[in-house]
Amino acid sequence: MAPSKPPKAVLFDIGGVCVLSPLEVIASYENKNNIPKDWVNFAISRSSPEGFWQRLERGEICMDKAFFQGFNADLRNENLWKEFHTSFRNSKKKLKDVANPTQLGDHVSLKAEAADTSPTNQDRGAQSPPTSGHQPSENKDQGGDRPSLSKPSRDTTIGDPVSIESEEVAQTSDTETLSRDKQSTASSSPSPQEATSSLEKLPLIPNIDGEYLFWSMMAHSREPDPFIFPALLRLEKLPAKQKPILAALSNTVIFPAGHPYNRLSDSPESDPRSHFEVFVASAEVGMRKPDVDIYKLAIERLDKFDKEKGGDGVKAEDCVFLDDIGENLKTARNLGMQTIKVILGKTWRAVKELEHATGIELMDDKTRRSKL
Questions:
Q1: Roughly what angle, to the nearest 10 degrees, separates helices 39-46 and 23-32?
Q2: Distance of alpha carbon 307 from alpha carbon 42, whole angstroms
Q3: Helices and strands per DSSP (H, E), number in the chain
Q4: CA dist., res. 334 & res. 361, Å (int)
Q5: Which of 156, 170, 179, 211, CA to CA, is 20 to 30 A from 225?
Q6: Is residue 356 within 8 Å of residue 1, measured between CB atoms?
């Protein structure tokens, strides 16, 4: 199992990696409220870089009434709603018609790509159900006992939405077929009048309660991942000579002063932040993934930390980075890091890859027997 060159540092994302992904909350909210699948993620993603979500994660604005008003406005953007129905959804349908959708790149999603199969109860960690009180009740997606700035929970970090990264679709080399396709496309292209008419027929923009959705996501993402978090604890307990530097690089938010969410956990053992020697939080440094500068900052801090401990420093190629968003991993790879994709509902696979990268066993016997 031993790799040729063990990493000097293991760099983790938080939301969707060390703790549960908010993607499940978004999907559930959309399903229960008859909102088109992917709309929430699309609206947040296309609002970048100056959307209220992105500005909050860069620490440029406060989490207050104005933020939630702006976030609601981003979720009700008429131009994005038209784009979603006229281009994004159609492009997804075409891709699914010609290719296996599980082999396409990242969907536009907040914190992960879809797993290649439906997650089993074991994959979800259902054997250890979340503590009641962290989850909004199922019948209160639109209002009810809304989580608020005064409702207790612990801090979380939520990653940024990602853009579509789809594979190229193979095209036929048959000249006649191409010509026929072009003629068909030309004849079927709608006139300006028809296009205008189709926009007028769009369904109404969903009335999303952005504040409720936000706090539901925060609550869900407070639960440690049942596979990656135990692996982090195992790495932490290794002898000093064998242990890599443990670091986090996460898009985060800052809660109001005195808010209970500023405490990641009532238990230090289940507080992800307490287990890292270097922690780079977007809202504290004014940058967010996938901006290359925040990765460079993380490497600088790792290098400084290692040298202060008597090491010879850390470079990008000395790091393994775990994230659940392809765009974030791409930036890391371009800098020279080894990367591991964390897939929603299949996080144990990332642990297996991390074992291979480090040469260290990170699963207990029960998990290994059930998954390998």
A1: 120
A2: 42
A3: 15, 5
A4: 28
A5: 211
A6: yes
**What DSSP designation does 29 have?**
H
Distance from first CA to last CA of the chain, Å, rounded?
A: 15
Report d(CA 345, CA 24) in Å as an integer.
10
- How many residues are there in the chain? 372
- CA quadruple 326, 339, 59, 344: dihedral positive or negative? positive
HSE-up of residue 21 (Cα within 13 Å, Cβ side)? 30
pTM across the whole model: 0.73
**Residues whose CB is less than 8 angstroms from the CB of residue 303 and which lie 6 or more positions away in sequence, other chains included:** 313, 314, 315
114-166 pLDDT, tens digit per residue, is 333 344 444 433 333 333 333 344 444 444 444 444 333 334 344 444 333 33
In 60-108, alpha helices (H): 65-74, 78-83, 89-98
Say if residues 343 and 13 touch (Cβ distance below 8 Å).
no
In terms of pLDDT, which residue wins out, 256 or 304? 304
3-state secondary structure of 322: strand
pLDDT tens readout for residues 253-270: 999 988 887 765 556 666
Residue 279's SS3 state is strand
Helix ranges (H only) for the chain are 23-32, 39-46, 52-57, 65-74, 78-83, 89-98, 175-188, 192-200, 210-220, 228-236, 282-285, 292-308, 326-335, 347-358, 365-371
pLDDT surpasses 60 at 110: no
DSSP 48: T
Taking the mean position of all CA atoms in its chain, how far away is CA 285?
19
The strand pairing partners of 340, in sequence order, are 322
Q: In terms of Cα–Cα distance, which of 25, 45, 33 is closest to 251?
A: 45
- The answer to whether 323 and 332 are in contact (CB under 8 A) is yes
Burial of 372 (0-12, 13-18, 19+ CB in 10 A): exposed
Helix (H, G, I), strand (E, B) or coil at 114: coil
Q: Which two tokens stand for residue 320?
A: 């393994």
Q: Partners of 341 in the beta sheet?
A: 323
Contacts of 180 (CB under 8 A, 6+ apart): none
Q: Which of 74, 273, 246 is nearest to 161 (CA)?
A: 74
